[in-house]
Amino acid sequence: MDEAVQVGTCYASLAYFGHALEKLLHGAIEAAASQRPRPTDGEERADDGAGEEMARVARFLDHFAPALQVVAGCARKIDVSLWPRLFGAVGPPRRLFESALAQDRLSVAAAFLLLLPHYSPADDGLDEGSADSLAADAQRLLASAVAATNWPLCKELMRFLAALDASGARLRRALAVAGIRTAAAPPGGSL
């Protein structure tokens, strides 16, 4: 592993290095999928050659800055039925979301936020995709995006929150927590 990391480090400054890592991860997932039947949610184990390869690739990725972005990009591009293999090796999307948020990698955290409603392994006991849980996560991410003045991300998060709740209550709550004042509608009409 050390030699592979040394070689990878030599190329880490290249603009397409993240894409190369994504191709590596995707290849490992495809190899694992072709070597044994697909597991059900939460069943992924690194107990065969394919699982061991996935675990090695995951450990390799952890040595490089774009690792979270690589995992998010790969998850968006593969079939959902392969997610148990991916997240069995790299960790659950909830943990990856929290890690990206803690590192102020807000766009990457947003990518994991979009995955949460679609990922619910049977054995973790969490309701990651519930509207309340998603709204709380989006609210925290929105507050961070406001602090970073990342207005395009703020706009996307507001759209996400509006889609969770037709009444707009979750969006209004998130805006208040983030310190965004909303303009009152003019008398007798819309804005």
From TrEMBL:
Tell where it localizes: Membrane
BP GO annotations: intracellular protein transport; retrograde transport, endosome to Golgi
Q: What is its main location?
A: membrane
Q: Which InterPro entries match?
A: Ric1, RIC1_C
The RIC1 C-terminal alpha solenoid region domain sits at 2-177
Recorded hits in Pfam families, A to Z, give: RIC1 (PF07064)
For this UniProt record, the keywords arranged alphabetically read as follows: Membrane
Q: Give the source's domain of life in one word.
A: Eukaryota
The name this protein goes by in its record: RIC1 domain-containing protein
Organism placement in taxonomy: Eukaryota, Fungi, Dikarya, Basidiomycota, Pucciniomycotina
